[in-house]
Amino acid sequence: MRATAHRLRAGKLPGPLLDHLVDTYRTHPDPAVIVSPGYGRDAAAIQIGGPGQLVVKSDPITFARAGAAKYLVAVNANDIACLGGIPRWLSVVLLLPEHDSTVELVESLFADLQLACNEAGVSVIGGHTEVTSAVNRPVFIGTMLGVPGQRGLIEPGWARPGDDLLLTRWIGIEGTALLARERTEELATALGEATVSRAAKLLRLPGISIVRDTQTVLEAEGITALHDPTEGGLATAIHEIAGASGCGAEILVEAVPMLPETTAICAYFGIDPWGLLSSGSLLIAVAPEYRQSVERAAQAGGVPISHIGTLTEPQQGVTMIGSAGRAELRRFDTDEVARVL
Length: 341
Fold this sequence. Notes:
Blueprint: H1 15-24, E1 33-35, E2 44-47, E3 53-61, H2 68-82, E4 85-97, H3 103-120, E5 123-132, E6 139-148, E7 164-168, H4 173-182, H5 184-191, H6 193-200, H7 211-217, E8 223-227, H8 233-244, E9 248-252, H9 260-269, E10 283-286, H10 291-300, E11 305-312, E12 318-322, E13 325-328
């Protein structure tokens, strides 16, 4: 009898499945690997001889059409920064659809990539470009390299129960901007052009890069983990930052900051902002005695910051506390954007 096939939905692989695959199919161990693959580990780090170290990250852009190059540079650079690194070099694979690719399209994509890299201080060092029937729209895939910053690497797994969780800026910045750009006319009719215009501009102001914000908070002591909430939004990022350190978490619902444009767009599409692409915010774990110094560093750098909860013992699970009491915090293996686009 044929075994039942388990179909996967669009988005990240479910966390338990990813854990199983990584643990089951580990490759030859290499002592030069400092940060190895695992759930909640979004970048790697390797020793390259002597004191030299490289931070390495790979990520595609699969949701966005408009501004895809900017998304590519930002999301890869963000994960380099969350290991305490400085983004430096980018290798790019660009897959183009067979049915409507033109020389003019390719040139515009290269121009967008040049602009995004120049703004981020990143150099393109190579890659691959082809027209293929395997995709139906342009797909960027990036591998970014960086070097440790002045504070050195911040390795996943350093956080401990009792550490405070802080969040910079607001949840859903990336998803809000993406939906406003991809569904402009529909949203303008429903919510008004002014709301949609403000939402679309979030891609550039405040933007989805957290590199500067990371460098700002690292001027303070006591940070034990940094994480970039991307696919699956803040909720999934909390599961990931807690899981990487073998912790649970307790989140205060009312403390989580959200822009009115995000609230309006999520309400219109009937999606949950907690599971919405959230690049542009930075999730921070910090030893409780250093929390105020991190908050002061952020505020001095002009970075909005909120205390949203605490890491707990793992047996307490990952929970949220709101007006209705305590509930389990859902993990979004499929981002809410996928329900719309």
